[in-house]
Amino acid sequence: MRKLSLVLLMLFSVGCAKAPAPVDFSQLPEKKQTPQALYVTAIQAHDMKTQDPDNVYLVDVRTQGEVEFLGMPVAADVNIPYMFNDIEEWDSEKYRYKKVPNSNFSLTLAEKLEQSGFNKESTILLMCRSGTRSSKAASLLNKLGYSKAYTVVDGYEGDKVKEGEYKDQRLVNGWKNANLPWTYKLPEEKVYVE
């Protein structure tokens, strides 16, 4: 009887798990905003992609190193870095290599979209580490005439914890923290090769 009570308690707890709180996109930091204001969370992006895979194209815009060492969403159609690491310059304020734009980003994306049967009117989801580079990529695509370029506001790794023991660690939200499917085994047809 004791085991049955424990099992029922566990099932009840799972059934009462809190749903993710709705996101107030009007409160996004300026660096994550876009002129077209098309925003989704990682969970929403996953849902959009899995519910309508033939009409939603998910682009991982992180660097090749990020994708190789941190993995990539299984649902991603392709990795096209929006920026590259400049390994000759260190950013001492951000504790990382400086980033330089990928001058082939929009051309490569247009080619990949065409090969997959998508175009400038298709729904395109852009994901980076935490939502800043993807917002810049979405803004660029908006200027180039893409009508539905969304940014995944919490990205692959999510936002940083603001205080406490885990301060500055990316544990708040994002694809990986939501336990959405990802992999280290990157399919050759999805990786970016110059």
Describe the structure in your own words.
The chain has 194 residues and is α/β, with parallel strands linked by helices. It has one domain (28-190): Oxidized Rhodanese, domain 1 (3-Layer(aba) Sandwich), CATH 3.40.250. Helices cover 28% and strands 20% of the residues. It has five helices and nine strands. The protein has helices spanning 2-15, 42-51, 64-70, 105-115, 132-143, and strands spanning 39-40, 56-60, 72-73, 78-79, 83-91, 96-101, 123-127, 148-152, 182-183. The strands form three sheets. The protein has a five-stranded parallel sheet with strand order 1-8-7-2-4. Strands 3-9 form a two-stranded antiparallel sheet. Strands 5-6 form a two-stranded antiparallel sheet. The chain is globular, with a radius of gyration of 18 Å. The termini are far apart. Mean pLDDT is 89; it is low at 1-19.
List the topology elements:
Blueprint (H helix, E strand, L loop, with lengths): L1 H14 L23 E2 L1 H10 L4 E5 L3 H7 L1 E2 L4 E2 L3 E9 L4 E6 L3 H11 L7 E5 L4 H12 L4 E5 L29 E2 L11
Overall, the morphology is globular
Radius of gyration: 18 Å
Please report the first level of CATH classification, the CATH class.
Alpha Beta
> What name does the CATH topology carry?
Oxidized Rhodanese, domain 1
* C-alpha termini separation: 63 Å
Mean pLDDT: 89
> What ranges have pLDDT less than 50 throughout 5 or more consecutive residues?
1-19
Q: Give the class from helix and strand content and strand pairing.
A: alpha/beta
Compute the number of helices. 5
Largest sheet: 5 strands, parallel
Count of the domains = 1
The level of helicity is 25-40%
Query: What percentage of amino acids are in beta strands?
Result: 15-25%
Major beta sheet, strand line-up: 1-8-7-2-4
CATH superfamily: Rhodanese-like domain
Number of strands: 9
Tell me the CATH architecture: 3-Layer(aba) Sandwich
H/E element string? HEHEHEEEEHEHEE
